[in-house]
Amino acid sequence: MGKISQGVLGGFSGKVGNIVGGTWKGIDYMRIKPSNVSNPRTQGQVDQRTKFSKVLNFLQPMTEFLRVGYKLYANKMTQFNSAMSYQLQNTITGAYPDFSIDYTKVLVSKGALLRAEGGVGVSTEAGVVQLSWTDNSASGGAKATDKALIMLYNADKKVAVYDTAGAVRTAGTQSLSVPVDFSGDEIQAYLGFISEDGTEVANSVYVGAITVA
Asked: Among the three residues 105, 133, 152, which one is the final residue of a domain in this structure?
């Protein structure tokens, strides 16, 4: 039986279904293990396992990015697990067995820094995606030196392309190279900011779905 230590979305130890919790160096972690099909399953257990797997598969390609994007929300929890908790609460839509992720509600970075405004993404050249945004560095604690956090996610290929130290806020634009086999694929684009010293992070904004040239 699993033991929850910090509320329903906090750390837990033991096993709940095929979700295993534990602590390593004082940090709570979660992992999923293959189910034993002979185990009895309630519909609630099946729903939760399916949601967990859906979010896990979505986030795994961007693990390194989330270590930056959720660095301020990893209190006794890894950054990855903090991101897992947020997406499980806020982004799952549909009903079993057809759960899906609402990409418009995803946060790949989380914090109190002023978020991006006017984000737009386009791809007019093969292998290149360009994001642009409004320079709002004169507002609400934002600084000209804040750096862009950019995430491009290809759901069909389950590949993430990202930059955790991109162009400064005042630049208003940045291009990222993507694999050549992305051509014709739709990708989901997100834009956040991190302060130059790394102590502040902004909530990401959903820029939109972009078809790669």
From this structure: 105
Residue in this structure with the two tokens 């940090």, named with its chain if needed: 27
How far apart are the C-alpha atoms of 194 and 187, rounded to whole Å? Answer: 23
Q: How far apart are CA 13 and CA 29, in angstroms?
A: 9
pLDDT digits (tens, 9 = 90+) for 183-197: 999 999 999 999 999
- pTM of the full predicted structure? 0.81
Rounded distance between C-alpha atoms, residue 78 and residue 67, angstroms:
8
User: DSSP code of 81?
Assistant: H
Strand arrangement of the beta sheet that strand 173-177 belongs to: 117-125, 128-134, 173-177
Distance CA 193, CA 195 (A): 7
Residue 112 belongs to a domain:
no
Q: What angle do CA 85, 48, 186 make, to 5 degrees?
A: 70
Query: Does residue 124 have a pLDDT over 80?
Result: yes
For residues 153 and 146, the answer to whether their CB atoms sit within 8 Å is no
Q: Which of 55, 58, 59, 37 is nearest to 46 (CA)?
A: 37
Q: At what angle do helices 79-90 and 43-59 cross, to 10 degrees?
A: 120
In a domain, 1, yes or no: no
Q: How many domains does the chain have?
A: 2
